[in-house]
Amino acid sequence: MILTGHARLAGVIGWPVGHSRSPRLHGYWLDKYRLDGAYLPLPVQPGRFEQVLRALPHMGFAGANVTVPHKEAALALADHVEPVARRIGAVNTLVVRPDGSLEGHNTDAFGFLENLRQGHPGFSAAAGPAVVLGAGGAARAVIAALQEDGAPAVRLLNRTAERAWQVAAELGGPIEVVPWEQRAEALAGAALLVNTTTLGMEGQPPLLLDLQQLPVDAVVSDIVYVPLETELLGAARRRGNPAVDGLGMLLHQARPGFAAWFGVMPEVTDELRNFVRGP
Length: 279
Ligand code: ATR
Hints:
Blueprint: E1 8-14, H1 22-32, E2 37-43, H2 49-55, E3 63-66, H3 71-77, E4 80-81, H4 83-88, E5 93-96, E6 102-105, H5 108-119, E7 130-133, H6 137-148, E8 154-157, H7 161-171, E9 175-177, E10 192-195, E11 219-222, H8 231-238, E12 243-244, H9 247-253, H10 255-262, H11 270-277
Parallel strand pairs: 1-2, 1-3, 4-6, 7-8, 7-10, 8-9, 10-11, 11-12
Antiparallel strand pairs: 3-5, 5-6
Helix pairs in contact: 5-6, 5-9
The chain binds 2'-monophosphoadenosine-5'-diphosphate.
């Protein structure tokens, strides 16, 4: 990669940031589309975040992704916040406007829906009730996406019921909080099941869930992508349910930022999926 003095600049701000796959992902697209630009890991301690954010427009940055632990601070500090980011309560993408002010976006809801649409063509949340497991930041983005796509109802289950009630109160709309212990029964008549908990992730406990009551045409998706084929997705496929893995959400959520900074809406391909999973 050879940069000129006009290279467009972006990066990911986090602490720590060494585990982030975003530099690899954006670097792949910059190469693929032969763009004069760079995307850097930007390790920024919590106490320094505002200083760095304010400096971005003055350093010629087109914008940045924001990850843990800065996403809520980015929401508070951005000059203009899009409605979906406010609903989710976090900003993961900053875009510098020509006047130097900062736009805050959250592209996780977009990434979730685009991944389902690519993995299961014709997917629509309007098809029926959705069951969402978990009540963290990922669950907020998933529910916001489902509501935007016309889900008639969301059944929300979380080990800590209090957090589920809080998400339901904050997001509003038809969200039914169901006790975690009733997760097998909650699947009856559902059109979609999404795991947004860390259960089933490498090094975490398994997700124990009996799928017997889930209709066989219900789509099953997992936010966990290490391993790519989680036990939940495997069990779903074995009984005939369409299953969509979580890697695509990560890849699709990155597209709007790349488009805003570098001027090309990039594609998610099988080659990219394999590349990002590499070392
Ligand atoms: P994120 O913001 O990335 O979604 P998070 O806020 O840490 O991450 O949320 C992790 C989710 O996994 C939560 O819903 C959490 O449940 P609690 O709210 O009860 O903590 C869920 N989770 C993690 N470990 C779990 C376990 N052993 N059993 C059930 N749920 C678990």
